[in-house]
Fold this protein.
Amino acid sequence: MPNAFSFVFLAACLLTASTRLWLARRQMAHVAAHRAQVPADFSARIELAAHQKAADYTLARTSLGRVSLALDLAFLLALTLGGGLQRLHELWLAELPGIAYGVALIFSVLALGALLDLPLALYRQFVIEERFGFNRMSVRLFFADQAKAALLAVLIGVPVLGIVLWLMEAMGANWWWSVWLFWCTFNLLVVFVYPSWIAPLFNKFTPLDDDSLRQRVEALLARSGFASSGLFVMDGSRRSSHGNAYFTGYGRNKRIVFFDTLLNRLQPTEVEAVLAHELGHFKHRHVLKRVVLHFAGALALLALLGQLIDERWFYLGLGVTTMNTAIGLQLFLLVCPVFTFMLTPLFSLAARRDEFAADRYAAEQVSASELISALVKLYEDNAATLTPDPLHSLFYDSHPPAGLRIARLQESL
Ligand SMILES: [Zn+2]
């Protein structure tokens, strides 16, 4: 039953998997080769022990990434060419009518994928993160998180998927326009309610009560014309000792969130510099740009799905003999990443450009040297490698390598 498209799909799978393995091998070799010595630019700021910890942490994570890659590929092939999706269809078809069948089919694929990922997630958290001293989570909290996320996925996902499947069937040949409009509205809604409704399900948020830091931050916000509905501290230390800061929401519902781990580690001037970097993203409209790009991409993909969903070769080529809306959508969701993987470097390149722009903004608004010392601490605390393989970094990294980033900041001093 395999057709020409089966071979195109297999070739794309092989190309994607071999590229990923090759890049992982390069990354591991490069990090291992530079493990013995702190790079010259950092030798005054970072101890050899911290550098070696970062190298070992990178090696451990990259190595696990290869296992995860192999499992994902096996799952994808089992569902498609292996006939797994066809089996699931037969399992649910007798039981359920219309939209319920589609929701059940797609959710069973999701559940199988999550189940397959569970041992890896456990290993990542309780073996790797634990070994490097980052894990603060109990097994109980881990499963409580998983249960909450699963419940949320069902509560939100079932109606959303139901509406999408209904639109696809009820709106005629040009259904993809209405699905796109619905998808964009839904996404904007989620981003809007996330800070106040969803994030608090997983973490505690308390208003920032350090007065001197708050005044400093408020002065920076006023200076850069940023209106926010509050500064919050998140108990990130409940799960991990990695530190971060971000802002979420939009319009009047914007919030700035600091991880408690970040505040414990950085001086107030360094926190200010990190926040200025985040504001730089806002000032340069990076967030808006990303949303527009995401929506445009969704429209293109939905239009493509609109073409493929009635093509018999698309189903047969992927190991399915039954044609219907839910299977068409599920197949598309499964195989899309295989074909879009090669676009990764483009998105990474754009993201790194934005990082440089945000760094420049922070250097202008606060100070380059404060941002440098904050970054060095964050790289050290997160055990991020200072010596990534250049090609690996070029392909995947949303942030420029530490050395390049700090060199740029130093130029502005
Ligand atoms: Zn950034």
